[in-house]
Design a protein that fits this description.
Blueprint lengths: L1 H7 L3 H15 L4 E7 L5 H8 L22 E5 L2 E8 L10 H7 L7 E6 L5 H12 L3 E6 L2 H7 L4 H18 L7 E3 L10 H41 L4 H7 L7 H12 L3 H11 L3 H5 L7 H7 L1 H7 L1 H10 L5 H37 L3
Parallel strand pairs: 1-3, 1-4, 4-5, 5-6
Antiparallel strand pairs: 2-3
Helix pairs in contact: 1-2, 1-8, 2-11, 2-16, 8-16, 10-16, 13-14, 14-16
Length: 365
């Protein structure tokens, strides 16, 4: 409601404050990550590496050559606040079919998945990926034990990386599964290979995962408020009371009108500067995406505005000014067209600015 009111008032700095307050609540919401794969692929070792916990730690996940994880186990990581990592038994460990496994592991409760593989990318890996994609949830594929592969292969790390990645993608394409992020790591050496990149991407994607629905909802809310505002303004845009309220001294001066509309929606220079300051961005990050920065540029970019402000139209309206009553009526009609078009362009700019503010708030620079 605070965001709706701020948008309706054309107070973008207040929108930024309200969005940040909302995000603080959302970011405290726990995210459940399921780590899953075939038995013996090293899921528990990977979780320990992700948490930067040694295998000998009191709260580390049990690891070994045999099937060490028989039931679901959850743990936390200091690297990922408000994230619950779930160490699931290997596929086929608890039940005889993948369908029963998915039901027993309660796959629908998880927000994010990491599929662990090593030695081979099996049919069960592909089916897991297909199932997760059908659930419209994000997942990574992590190839563990890269240190073992390097010690037994004649390939360089780059060649091995390419070979394994191509094999995984080829198997996924057979089931028309999208190309997910793929990482090759050694759980025993979490600072080497793709592990640092995995951690960085996971942090960013967890923020996106938490905030995706919020971003869509807030974006829709802001657009609805702006549309309602435009509809209301268009009904009285040519009235003297409206022009007085907006500080429009000359309704035929589009530069004056443009500045008035920008102030009315909160996308004037001063407001955008305040937004940039609060967002920790530079002023041009927001200013450069405006289509309505100035009338001259707008007349060149928008064909409708070009037609309404060209020399021929100006000469035509000038001639009409000598015709009593009818001329005034036609001039007023075209003036209203220009104002409504200008209003619509500024409104679209406001939507664009708000979408960027939302994205920049959710995904910090």
């Amino acid at each position: 409601m605070d965001i709706e009111k701020a948008v309706a008032d054309g107070n973008l700095p207040a929108v930024v404050s309200a969005i940040r307050e909302t995000l603080q609540i959302v970011l405290r919401t726990p995210v459940n990550i399921a780590v899953v794969g075939d038995s013996g692929n090293g899921m528990s070792s990977f979780i320990n590496a992700l948490r930067n916990t040694g295998h000998e730690g009191e709260d580390s996940a049990p690891v070994g050559v045999a099937k060490t994880t028989q039931t679901r186990a959850s743990c936390l990581s200091p690297y990922f606040p408000n994230v619950v990592l779930w160490d699931l038994p290997g596929t086929g460990c608890a039940t005889d079919s993948l369908e029963n496994y998915l039901m027993e592991m309660q796959f629908s409760r998880y927000d994010f998945f990491i599929i662990i593989a090593s030695e081979q990318f099996s049919v069960s890996h592909v089916m897991l990926a297909k199932t997760i994609e059908d659930m419209r949830k994000k997942f990574y594929i992590v190839w563990t034990k890269l240190d073992v592969d390097l010690s037994t292969s004649a390939f360089t790390e780059e060649q091995l990386h390419q070979t394994i990645t191509e094999n995984i993608l080829e198997n996924l394409q057979k089931k028309q599964v999208c190309e997910p992020p793929i990482f090759l790591v050694s759980s025993l050496e979490p600072f080497l290979h793709d592990f640092p990149k995995l951690r960085d991407m996971l942090r960013t994607d967890l923020i996106k995962n938490r905030c995706h629905d919020l971003l869509q909802k807030l974006s829709h809310t802001c657009e609805m408020v702006i549309n309602d505002k435009v509809t209301s303004l268009q009904k009285k845009i040519t009235t003297q009371s409206f022009q007085d309220a907006c500080g429009i001294s000359d309704a035929d001066d589009l530069g004056v009108c443009l500045n008035a509309y920008q102030s009315f929606f909160g996308v004037d220079d001063e407001s955008l500067w305040q937004v940039a300051q609060r967002m920790g961005r530079i002023f041009t990050d927001y200013m450069n995406i405006l289509k309505s920065r100035d009338v001259q540029g707008l007349s060149k970019r928008d064909w409708k505005m070009t037609c309404l402000t060209c020399a021929v139209m100006k000469a035509f309206l000038s001639l009409l000014s000598y015709i009593p009553w009818l001329g005034d009526y036609i001039i007023c009609y075209f003036r209203g067209m220009k104002h409504r078009l200008l209003l619509a362009i500024v409104a679209e700019d406001t939507k664009t600015i708000l979408r960027k503010v939302l994205e920049d708030s959710i995904i910090p620079q």
